[in-house]
Specification:
Length: 266
């Protein structure tokens, strides 16, 4: 998604909160906001980078992100109902601005505003990993903003479990499904006592109970981690692999499977 400089200038007040119907953002808050979309700026004793004003900083960073895959997510975040009290009004105002570039902000089936138009397609990014898989999983968890849904046969890795606990404490929606068996009962982590949505399942079949042998994780409904890697303490010493795919369509398919699995044994 890429827009004109006129559009960037019109969007800028919705970021800073100066003269628009969005909350005011201080310098540190602006840094945090833009860093969520791929930047790595720091707020120092001198203030914003290059001694920019808040408005200068917002405009320069909008120009930098414009045309990247993250720019679409940034526009959608401005009217996110978890951050603003009037998402419908803001989305309507932003649509009036971005329509000049062939885009609109429209509600999807979940009532979330998404950018549409101009033959827009979410880019699919795929990366296969054969080394340092545990680190890749932890890095992905640490970058999560909203949701982490996990379905793995066995979950005994305390380091990964602790990262989930920290995200849960920050208000991230964390859900875990594991296989209901003796291994889980004996070695599985105690997510339930931590307040994390946790369920053990053993799907039924014509021949009795089946092994819930999935190994996938859905992050922010846009990223999927899946492969041979079980989230156990010993898995890091095995020959394993995972694929990390950034695709909303794929994430939706895995989310449907997660919901189906979670509904087992009710």
């Amino acid at each position: 998604m890429k827009v004109s400089e006129l559009t960037l200038n019109a969007i800028k007040p919705y970021i800073t909160g100066d003269g628009a119907s969005t909350p005011y953002m201080s310098g540190p808050e602006l840094i945090k906001f833009f860093n969520a979309f791929g930047l790595s700026d720091k707020y120092t004793r001198e203030g914003l980078p290059n001694a920019w004003s808040r408005n200068e900083y917002a405009y320069e960073r909008l120009k930098e992100i414009n045309g990247t895959p993250e720019f679409k997510s940034l526009i959608e975040a401005i009217s996110d109902s978890r951050k603003v009290s009037n998402p419908d009004d803001i989305a309507s105002e932003l649509s009036e601005i971005i329509k000049h570039d062939g885009y609109l902000l429209e509600k999807d089936d979940l009532g979330i505003f998404k950018v549409t138009g101009a033959e827009l397609k979410d880019p699919v990014q795929i990366a296969a990993h054969f080394q340092e898989i545990k680190k890749q999983i932890i890095d992905s968890i640490q970058s999560t903003e909203f949701t982490i849904w996990i379905a793995v046969a066995w979950f005994t890795d305390r380091d990964i479990g602790n990262e989930l606990r920290l995200k849960h404490k920050k208000g991230i929606n964390v859900r875990v499904i594991v296989n209901d068996d003796e291994t889980t009962d004996k070695y599985g982590l105690d997510f339930f006592s931590r307040g994390i949505d946790y369920k053990k399942v053993s799907p039924n079949s014509l021949w009795g109970k089946k092994l819930m042998h999935n190994k996938f994780c859905i992050i922010d409904l846009c990223k999927v981690i899946h492969g041979s890697y079980n989230w156990t303490s010993n898995a890091q010493y095995n020959n394993e692999s995972i694929t990390i795919t950034e695709s909303r369509d794929l994430a939706k398919e895995f989310s449907r499977q997660f919901i189906e699995l979670r509904g087992q044994n009710i």
